[in-house]
Amino acid sequence: ITKSYKVFSIFIVLLALGVFGCQNSSKKEQNEPEKLPNIVIIYMDDLGYGDVGAYGATEIHTPNMDKLANGGVRFTTGYASSATCSPSRYALLTGQYPWRNENAKILPGTAPLLIGTEQLTIPKMLKEKGYYTGVVGKWHLGLGSGNVDWNETIAPGPNQVGFDYSYIMAATQDRVPTVYIEDGNVVGLEEDDPIQVNYQKNFEGEPTGKDNPELLKMKWHHGHNNSIVNGIPRIGFMKGGEKAKWIDEDMADTFLEKAKQYVQQHKDGPFFLYYALQQPHVPRTPNERFVGLSGMGPRGDAIVEADWCIGEFIQTLQSEGILDNTLIIFSSDNGPVLNDGYYDDAVEKLGNHTPWGPLRGGKYSLFEAGTRVPFVVYWNGKVTPGVSDAMVSQIDILSSLAELVGSDNKTEDSKNLLDVFMGKSEEGREELVLEATSRTALRKGNWAMIPPYEGPAKNNSVNIELGNSSEFQLYDLSSDIGEQKNQAKENPEKLQEMVETFKQIRGA
Ligand code: NG6
Ligand code: CA
C-alpha cells in the first residue's frame, strides 16, 4: 500500500508540475516580449558641436564617431541640459532639469552625492526591467554625504543610485582625488598610505603648482595650482595614496578596458552601460600612441584618442555578436573650450578647426555652443539612419528609454521622444530651458531668448562669450544660427511670448 501510494503521489506531483509547467511556459510564450536591447550611452567631456567629422569638422578625423552618426540618427539640434558637466550629468541620469536642484553646479571632488538615493534615475528604471547597469568613466556627481573617508568604502555613490557596477573617477581629471574608484573602493590603495583630500588648504610640506613650478610637466594658466600629481598641477589638495594614483596618459585605455570587460561579462544582457570618457577635458593627456596625430596639440590628439576608444568599443560589441541588439546614444556634456586652465597649445595649434562649428559661445555659455552638442542615436537595423533637425535634449533620454523598455517611470521634465530618437518622427520638443553656471535661457521653435544677466559678457580666462547682457537677447536661429542679430527690440511680440513660456516653465 505504501509503495503504490508513493507511486501515486509521485504521479500526482509530476502531473501538477506538468500542468503548471505547461501553463507557465505557454503563458510565457504568449507574452514573451521582444528581447530588450542593451543600451549604451557614450558620453564625452567638453566635445564641441564642430569637433566631429559628421558635424562638419574637416581638420580633425573622427571616423568612429562618424560611423555612429552616419549609421544612426544625427541630430543637428540636440542639447546637453547645461553648459557645464555636473548639471548636465545630473539631468541626463535623473530626467530632471538641473536648475531645480540648487546644488547642481560644477562640484569639487569632496562634494556629497548630488542625486538623492530616492530619486529616479535611468539605471534604476532599467534595473526594474531586468537590466544589469554599470558606469565606467567620469562621475562628477558627488560622493558620500559630506566628509568622505577615501580609505573606507565610499557611499552613497553610483551604486546607491541604480548602478550595479561602477568604475569611476570621482570628479574631473583636473581635480583631486586622482584615483579610480571601483564599487566604492579606491583601486590599488595601500593600507599604510592613506589618502587625504582637502579643497581649502594644503597638507604641510606637500608641493603645489603655485610654489613648485620646477616640478611641473604641464603649466597652469588659471586655477589648477594646488597639488601636483604626475607633474600636473590640480584643483584641490591631496596627500597619500601614491600607489593608487592614476597615470593620466593611461586613463583612456583603463576606462576602455573596463568598458570592454563589462560588455564581455554581461553580453547575455540586457545591460546598460554609461561609458563616460574623460576627453577632451583638461588636462589633455593623450597616450603617446596618439601624440601628434591631430597636428593640433593635446586637445586634438585627445579627440583622436577618444575616437579610437569608441571604435574599439564598438568592435567589442561586434565581436561579441551583440552590436545589432545594442542601442547606442553618443553625445557630450557641454560645449568646447580651448584654454580651460593649462598651457597646452589648444589655442596656438588650432589652425582652421572650429570646435564650436557655426555656433556662438562655448563651454560655460548661454549661447548655443554651450549646450548644443553632437547627439547621435545608433541602433543597427532598428534606427532609421538620417539627419534630424528635431529639437531633442539629453533630459529626454530617461522617458524615451522608459518607453522603449515598457516602464511607466517617466518624469515631467523628460519628454518621451522615442519615435524621434528612432528616426521615425521629426516631432521633437517645442521648447527647452537651457542652463549655464546657474543662469537659464529659453529655446522655443527656431528662437533663442536669453534674459538679462549681470556679469561679464566674456570670460577672458577661457576666451568665451558667456551670454550676459543688460538687455534681453532674442535670436532667430533659422536664419541666424550664429546669434549675431539681436531681434529683441524689433520683435517685441516674439520676445513677450518667449518670456512668458520661460516664466511658465521656470515657475517664476
Ligand atoms: C572649472 C575649471 C575648469 C574645469 C571646470 C569643470 C578653474 C579655473 N577652471 O572651475 O578647468 O575643470 O571647472 O569642467 O578651476 S566640467 O566640464 O567638469 O564642468
Ligand atoms: Ca564637461
Automatic annotation (TrEMBL):
Keyword Metal-binding: no
Keyword Membrane annotated: no
Pfam families for this protein: Sulfatase
SUPFAM superfamilies assigned to the protein according to its UniProt record, in alphabetical order: Alkaline phosphatase-like (SSF53649)
GO terms assigned for molecular function: hydrolase activity; transferase activity
Taxonomy, superkingdom: Bacteria
InterPro entries listed in its UniProt record: Alkaline_phosphatase_core_sf, GAG_Ulvan_Degrading_Sulfatases, Sulfatase_CS, Sulfatase_N
Domain Sulfatase N-terminal: 37-406
UniProt keywords, alphabetically: Hydrolase, Transferase
Family: Belongs to the sulfatase family.
Protein name (record): Sulfatase-like hydrolase/transferase
Organism: Maribellus comscasis
